[in-house]
Amino acid sequence: MIEPRLDHLVYAAPDLDALVAGFTARTGVAPAPGGKHVGRGTRNHLVGLGGAAYLELIGPDDPAATPLPDVFGIDRLAAPRLAAWVVRPTDLDATVRHARAQGYDPGDIVPLSRRTPDGHLLEWRLTPNQGDRFDGLAPALIDWQDAKHPTAGGLPELRLVALAGRHPDPPAVQRALAALGVTLDVTAGPPALEAVLDTPRGPITIS
């Protein structure tokens, strides 16, 4: 089962242009430019996953920058990685309070923004990419506030067939997921988040 409140998946790499080119060649679908993240040193491209969910391909705005941004561990990556998934709860603040009461802290909520290619500023709130996320298996939480959702403008689209994770301690991950009120199939193994996509060139797996 795919979490119904899934907002987006984060596919990160140290070179965004190379990631986009490789993804396009592999799937037959070219991700649309998303824009630059204000003050974070990153930019992204987007692909719809059906409904109000999408795949974010993210990397440094300048791949030659030193150091690379630490967003989603980009500064430590040698190859693309499905680094995170993001859920859109009905009430972000209440979800954070409930998770903390259950013993899992998803982090403080921070304001973020992105400048789109046409110059429009999108602003939202997000629990940060910090703390114990169990190697990306515990999701970030997002509130788009009054911003137009990225899928509302029309994106090139693929279909998300499956989303699952592996971790050396699945029960610990499941406790965090339960505190957040979300679901993800997690099996034992080296840490990884794995998504299966249906593409014009057949199903592919990214992790």
Oligomeric nature of the chains: single chain
> Topology as H/E string?
EHEEEEHEEEEHEEE
Helix content: 10-25%
| Structural class by secondary-structure content | alpha+beta
Question: How many angstroms does the end-to-end distance come to?
Answer: 18 Å
| Binned strand content | 35-45%
Average predicted confidence as pLDDT? 93
CATH classification class? Alpha Beta
Count of strand segments: 12
Written description of the protein model:
This is Glyoxalase-like protein. Residues 5-139 form the VOC domain. Pfam families: Glyoxalase_3. It comes from Pseudonocardia hierapolitana. With 207 residues, this protein is of the alpha+beta class. An eight-stranded mixed β-barrel has the order 1-4-3-2-6-7-8-5. A four-stranded mixed beta sheet has the order 10-9-11-12. A hairpin with a 4-residue loop joins strand 2 and strand 3 (42-48). Helices cover 16% and strands 37% of the residues. It has one domain (6-206): 2,3-Dihydroxybiphenyl 1,2-Dioxygenase, domain 1, CATH 3.10.180. Helix 2 crosses helix 3 (170-180). The two termini are 18 Å apart. The protein contains three helices and twelve strands, in the order E-H-E-E-E-E-H-E-E-E-E-H-E-E-E. 39% of the residues are buried.
Topology:
Elements: E1 6-12, H1 16-27, E2 32-37, E3 42-48, E4 54-60, E5 81-87, H2 92-101, E6 110-115, E7 121-126, E8 140-143, E9 159-167, H3 170-180, E10 185-188, E11 192-199, E12 202-206
Parallel strand pairs: 1-4, 5-8, 9-10
Antiparallel strand pairs: 1-5, 2-3, 2-6, 3-4, 6-7, 7-8, 9-11, 11-12
Helix pairs in contact: 2-3
